[in-house]
Amino acid sequence: MPQDILINWSPQETRVAVVEHGALQELQVERTLERGLVGNVYLGKVARVLPGMQSAFIDIGLDRAAFLHVADLMSSINNRHLEANTTHPTIAPKPIEKQLFEGQAVMVQVLKDPIGTKGARLTAQISIAGRLLVFLPQDNHVGVSQKIPPKQRDELRQRMQELAGDLGGGFILRTNGEDATDAELAEDIAYLRKTWARVKNAALRLPASSVLHQDLNLLQRVLRDVAGESTQTIRIDSREQFDKLKVFACEFMPVTVQKLQLYTGERPIFDHFNIDEDIAKALGRRVDLKSGGYLIIDQTEALTTVDVNTGGFVGARNFDDTVFKTNLEASQAIARQLRLRNLGGIVIVDFIDMIKENHRDTVLEAFKKQLARDRVKTTVNGFSALGLLEMTRKRTRESLAHQLCEPCSVCMGKGFVKTARSVTYDILREILREARQFNPREFRVIASPRVIELFLDEESQHLAGLSDFIGKPISLQAETAMAQEQYDIVLM
Known about the structure:
By secondary structure, the chain is α+β, with helices and mostly antiparallel strands. The protein has helices at 150-164, 182-205, 218-226, 239-252, 269-272, 275-282, 319-341, 357-371, 400-404, 420-437, 449-456, 460-470; strands at 3-10, 13-20, 23-31, 41-50, 55-59, 66-69, 105-112, 121-123, 128-129, 133-136, 142-144, 170-173, 210-213, 231-236, 260-262, 286-288, 294-299, 303-309, 345-350, 378-383, 389-393, 443-447, 474-478, 487-491. The strands form five sheets. A six-stranded mixed β-sheet has the order 16-17-18-19-21-20, with helices on one face. Strands 3-2-1-14-15 form a five-stranded mixed β-sheet, sandwiched between helices. Helix 1 (150-164) packs across helix 2, helix 7 packs parallel to helix 8 (357-371) and helix 10 crosses helix 11.
């Protein structure tokens, strides 16, 4: 389906929107301060070798030296990339003091970002990720992701060996390359080999502690991973980034050069195409359908649930047709919301119950057809015995809500708070507990204005009764800064 890509760039944040038929289908966000170092390749300098720990500290130009263990120094076998059904004899590494010495230059890659007082964790086993493949320049192993069914692995491995040829280096086929064509795989192989050639060339030119290769930023990943034959235009609102992206495209993705356009409109690009409005809607629980029905989407730790409701839709001739048409429209909306919100893992969809079997089959096929447009791998298991549709969608990154939002400081992520009346009763019970342990002159209740108002009105009799029972006066103080569930009881 034809698509347009809109890029809003600022020094602090990059946002990319994928639009199809005028509707936002996918959103990616990258913030400058949150970009990590994982995947970056450096020409490090050995600062210190620790034989007792079989490790070394490597200077890669950061505030703290990075850590390299002897197990991550081996280049003959990289166990992280081996498939589970492949067996290799255990090879004991040579002592690290016989492989490294202080002042030595060594090419390393970041495995883990620095955390707190700990430096980055490194490996000398370089791997470069592409859209469909991972390139292992120090290995000749050709492997296939374990997540691909075993029956397909042998065939895919054979294809990869033929495409890779004997130019050196190994490859791992990623899960999203399962259905790729030979042309797409060959294009990724060429890109990865070209990238590795640049890394080796930089290692010869640059001094120690220099960056040789940085993992692609979001703008570059858009050209590599998102843009395709169906992409009509790629509009970006920054002249500087447009020029940089054009240089990158000319070298690595020449087919995308003609699609790049600089947006020069007076209004911000996301405002002009109503993207911000769609983002705001994508952060809500409720999604309204054109027919009058609506979806309720709830994301939990274990899974995501989607509930379909008819709402005010009464347009069909009978109830069965109303349900069928609502579910049919919902199937399209759900597929779009999964992409837009980047919801991964287990997804349970509660379509409105359909009595007719052909209605269920039609809705299921329509849903699968919409999911086929998703770049992320999805698996639909069909309807369960309870009439719930079960499916999975591969997790690729944090969901939109987790990336842009945080749990509410008032409800702590529950999505609801106690009523003011419930809080007043909590306060009365707490005063009674305190009165049994302490003997103050007076109890002062500090709470939200709504709770205090309830004490002064409908709950005044209960408050006065408690005061008489404990034999102590109870005063009230409203605090506008307090949330409804918050309160303090001060012993005067």
